Amino acid sequence: MAENTDENKEGKAEKKAGDRVIPQSITGEMKDAYIDYAMSVITARALPDVRDGLKPVHRRILFAMKKMGLTSGAKFRKSAAIVGEVLGKYHPHGDSAVYESLVKMAQTFSFRYPLAIGQGNFGSIDGDSAAAMRYTEAKMSAVAEDLLADIDKDTVDFRDNYDSTTQEPVVLPASVPGLLLNGTLGIAVGMATNIPPHNLTELVEAIIHLIDNEEATVKDLMQFVKGPDFPTGAVIFGENDIRDAYVDGRGSVVIRGEAEIIEEDGGAHSIIISSLPYRVNKAQLIEQIADLVGNDTLDGIKDIRDESTTDIRVVIDLKRNAHPQKILNSIYKSSRLEGKFHFNMVALVDGIPQTLSLKAILEEFISHRITVVRRRSEFELGKAKAREHILLGLKQALDHIDEIISLIRASADREIAHKELKKKYDFSDRQAEAILKMRLQQLAGLERQKIENELKEIQGFIAELEELLSTEENIKDQVKEELVAIADEHGDVRKTRVVKHKKGDISAEDLIADEPSILVFTHDGYVKRTDPDSYKRQKRGGVGVVDINTKDDDFVTTVLSTTMHSDLLFFTDQGKVYQTKMYELPEGRRATRGKSIVNFLELESDEAVTSILAVPKEKKEIEDLTLTMVTRKGKVKRVTADSFHDVRRSGIIAVTLEDEDELVSASFTRDDDEIMLATRAGYAIRFKADEVRTMGRSAKGVNGIKLGDKDDAVVAGGIINDKKKEGSLFVITENGFGKKTPLSEYSVQGRGGKGVKTANLSKTTGKLVTATILTDEETEIVAMSRDAQVIRIDVNDVSNLSRNTKGVRIMKLHEKDLVASLVSL
Q1: 512-824 maps to CATH 2.120.10.90
Q2: What is the CATH number of domain 367-490?
Q3: Exposure b/e, 151-182, CB count within 10 A at least 16 = b
């Protein structure tokens, strides 16, 4: 019986406990918990508020310092006391996080306008840590006081602290635009912010302009805000990059430390570094440069030493035979003395993270200041009217002082006197209370005059406040006046120099000689550049040497001779064009494969490069040029060369292709040139270039040659100019047969015809692979096979033959191998 009773009790207990258990999926619980955590990090720790530009920890530190009386004119207090106040009342997190934030607020190399004044060791730009909080002392700076100004006048909302024992401000009144003034860096969950610091004077001018001109654009505001103004100085390059970042809220600008080359006694040179990019550790930079010297990346440096005191001064002594500018360029290129600042202007707007433009940030600050000024004025107006009410009562009492004294003396107690005053003279409760508290000394004539003067003064102040609050424009004018006063007090000259032109990126031209180079490109999209001397000249008919270690089924399609500094246009089978520099391509030895072109161009997955063109270097060389494109189906199109002056890395449309058509040739052309096409079936046509009118980039083109059967296709297109009219056409077939034929044997005819025979093809020769026009300037031919064999021969070793011949053996091929490409040098 007892056992049954115990079982019943256990069952009831389980049931009772079960009533308190809510079934929950573990995945759902983890998801909800993580979202709560993420939102907490985003809104309560990592991201600043757009209105005051502060994260919660910074806001709480400043508020705690104000409560402790640590204004800029007060005595210093131990940092440990400040941290303890913050932890105990406002910020229930680790003490190290609070102290690190306080330290950064006092560092002149971290904050453009420090919000704290530190006494003791607060770290250095070399990465030295601050002393322990028990050794250092701090107080607010004058700029920080402006962030807190009027906080006790109901200008901002307050909320309970974490344990509801006191209250803290939701945001500070912020008389200065804190978000842009000192910038911020924060990493939340799934988002981050990175805003650079700016110059106070410039920001104030921009804000005033925006108040007066609400339709102002970012470009208009940049008349005043030239760009970021970093505490470490340095130089920013690229006005357009800055504007793009200000417009989009995202972007990057090149930032470079300042350095100059000076000549020492004896003719040697030194490089003096006088400023650093923002957030660059000086000691680590020096170590990085030393490592570059140690691993032979930098040559010509004799010694590096740090002579910095309050200013940055790093001295790099050079060897006597060194080239100073080249070494400095290499330092910029290889070290953190030059880098990029990545804008990511994310801040909380009404508690929601948003990416903001420069204008949007300033608009939010203006809106905040209008609200603060209005609330402050309403608070002061309320207090002034309350004081006016008391003064009116005191003045009325003084006018009837004898009767009031008699009334008070006749009253049995204070409460009766209070009621009688209200009843007889119609005083309010507050007026009656003030009269009862009035001292006898206020009955004197001078004291009476003081009350009247104060009343007059307070009524004038009330009139001013009512006038201020009467219109939005008056409030805006007040905001502008206060900003001008702050700029006059704290404004200073810009530290960071802005260079309008984008010269921040060190071009490889500064470090690489513009020497001849050969580009090798394969059917599967592998590319490399190599030294022309790696190909040994051979007699015609040789077997050749293997140039590139291709993978199975891959073969070389293009060999282009140019120089290291050339701009290269890559045309694809889909009619698009991409651009890169020759020196940006990987260097490879003769037998190496190279790298996939997708590492350098943003090609689509099903897109293949079919033609590569080197752009003339001099601007005057391309002013009168058009770009002529030829497709597999015989279409010809001409476009102005300027249309391809600045091709995006993601590519642009070069020609609109018909179904199953491809682009096979691209060449620069002038109106008085002639165009020559050769087909797989061994036909060629020659016609004047001006028969093809200049078209837009998206046009399809016109018929250049009439093809024979369905297997025929254009395999090459060339341009005949004045220099080439006395030249010859070199053709090569699949099985290695080739020949030269004088251009004089090809008469000029109208475009769109069938053309004339250019080679007598057979099973022995195979189909025509490609053709190229030779002049006296081309002295060598490089031919490559699908199995990547290459042969380099003197063009004089190839006989001149008539059009209707098969040619001579140019290259002996392995079994089943075929010629793939040809280039003249």
Answers
A1: yes
A2: 1.10.268.10
A3: bebbbbeeeebeeeeeebbebbbbbbbbbbbb
Q: Fold for domain 258-336?
A: Gyrase A; domain 2 (3.30.1360)
Q: How many CB atoms are closer than 10 A to CB 606?
A: 7
Q: 113, 135, 425, 578: which is the annotated catalytic residue?
A: 135
Q: Where are the domains of the chain?
A: 54-173, 258-336, 367-490, 512-824
Q: In the 8-state DSSP scheme, what is residue 745?
A: G
Per-residue three-class SS string for 20-59: CCCCCCHHHHHHHHHHHHHHHHHHHHHCCECCCCCCHHHH
Distance from CA of residue 546 to its chain's centroid? Answer: 45
Strand, helix or coil at 118? strand
Note whether 106 and 79 are within 8 A (CB): no
- Nearest Cα neighbor of 812 from 544, 558, 555 is 544
- Give me 522's structure tokens: 């394969």
Tokens 């042969």 belong to: 791
* Phi and psi, residue 204, nearest 5°: -60, -45
Which residue's entry shows tokens 């032109």? 501
Task: Tell me the per-residue pLDDT of 767-824, one tens digit each, with 9 for 90 and over.
Answer: 999 999 998 777 788 888 888 788 888 888 888 899 999 999 988 888 889 998 887 7
Would strands 192-195 and 184-187 be described as parallel, antiparallel, or unpaired? antiparallel
Concatenated DSSP letters for 146-162? HHHTTTTTT-S-EEE-T
Q: Which CATH architecture has domain 54-173?
A: Alpha-Beta Complex (3.90)
User: How much is the pTM?
Assistant: 0.62
CA–CA separation, 592 vs 529, rounded Å? 10
pLDDT digits (tens, 9 = 90+) for 483-538: 999 999 999 999 999 987 765 445 556 667 778 888 888 877 888 888 777 654 45
Nearest alpha-carbon partner for 140 in 169, 105, 111 = 105
Measured in whole angstroms, the distance separating CA 441 from the mean position of its chain's CA atoms is 70
What does DSSP say about strands 737-742 and 116-119: parallel, antiparallel, or unpaired?
unpaired
How many whole angstroms separate alpha carbon 309 and alpha carbon 679? Answer: 74
3-state helix, strand, coil in the chain (%, to 5): 35, 25, 40
Strand partners, 587: 529
Q: What percent of the chain has pLDDT over 70?
A: 90
Burial 476-507 (b: 16+ CB within 10 A, else e): bebbbebbeebbeebbeebebbbeeeeebebe
Which helix (DSSP H) or strand (DSSP E) does residue 276 occupy? none
Active site residue 135: yes
